[in-house]
Amino acid sequence: MLPVDCRGSGDGRSQYRYARHMIRPEIQPSVVAVVEPRAHVIVFGNEKGGSGKTTAALHVAVSLARSGARVGIVDLDLRQKSLTRHLENRRLWMQNTGRALPSPELISIARSVHRSLDAQAEEEIAQFSRSLEEAGRRYDCVVIDTPGADTPVSRVAHAAADTLVTPMNDSFVDFDLLARVDPANFEIKGPSVYADFVWDCRKRRLIARKPALDWVVMRNRIAATEARNRRRISLALDTLAERIGFRLAPGFGERVIFRELFPMGLTMLDLPLPGLPLSMSHVAARQEVRELIATLKLPNARPA
């Protein structure tokens, strides 16, 4: 099978400069540059934890690997490292069972041990910049999982994104990061902190004459039953998508199987396996993954 070419149409020159203005004013590390990779960069970002970024990032990366792409994956949650452990579990499962599964390659970023916050940010950003530059030449696609917090290295990753995927739980708690709503009639009052940040990333890309950022908001952990809250969320997201310019993607339902596969490092796309047959719920979950991949419209990508 021929590899999937997810690379952008850049001219090969170093285009992606590290921008000091993407870092909080109190943290201004003296890093020279983040070089624009030739690979297509897919960033999973949301400043709220527990939105399903890691699960979605891993499934997208595995799907691309299964379709023949050379895929690198970066875990920027340098404290929890849930994505790193998932991939470690995957390698261990393959060793113990003697089975080979298509997998992305982990691009390791070490957490800085400096006591100074400025020094920590500088070291981590420099390390990430070098790794992303090398990955751009080595892979077709680079998938980046960011922490559920506003960190300097996460901001640099957002600035490097060709496709930004923002998973959010189907609730107004998560919606509040995108926009504020009137509690009386649930009308949108204005964009919130994360939407403002993404808008700033978009403006700076346009000023630098870079391709426009494709922002996709992924509704995640959607309840199976119809409810008034679900309808209100749908209406609010449709309105906000037109106002601030993002696309909506179907996410994953609230299914136990996603959590059960973590100790083995497996994804829905790896099933069925001996001892792990497919149920109707599993088939539905796998279809959700395929629908997400199709909605992302990655360059020349096709679902495995």
Question: How would you portray this structure in words?
Answer:
The protein has 9 helices and 9 strands. It is an alpha/beta fold and 304 residues long. The chain has one domain: P-loop containing nucleotide triphosphate hydrolases (Rossmann fold, 3-Layer(aba) Sandwich). The strands form 2 sheets. Strands 3-2-4-1-5-8-9 form a 7-stranded parallel sheet, with helices on both faces. It is globular.
- Any idea what the CATH superfamily is called? P-loop containing nucleotide triphosphate hydrolases
Secondary structure: helix percent: 25-40%
**Which range does the strand content fall in?**
5-15%
* Sequence of secondary-structure elements: EHEHEHEHEHEEHEHEHH
Strand order of the largest sheet: 3-2-4-1-5-8-9
Q: Please give the alpha-carbon distance between the first and last residues.
A: 11 Å
Biggest sheet details: 7 strands, parallel
Instruction: Name the overall outline.
Output: globular
Number of domains: 1
CATH-scheme architecture: 3-Layer(aba) Sandwich
Q: What radius of gyration results from the CA coordinates?
A: 19 Å
Q: Report the top-level CATH class.
A: Alpha Beta
CATH topology: Rossmann fold
Average of per-residue pLDDT values: 84
Sequence stretches where pLDDT stays below 50 over 5 or more residues: 1-5, 7-35
Structural category is alpha/beta
What is the strand tally?
A: 9
> What count of helical segments does DSSP give?
9
Outline:
The protein contains 9 helices and 9 strands.
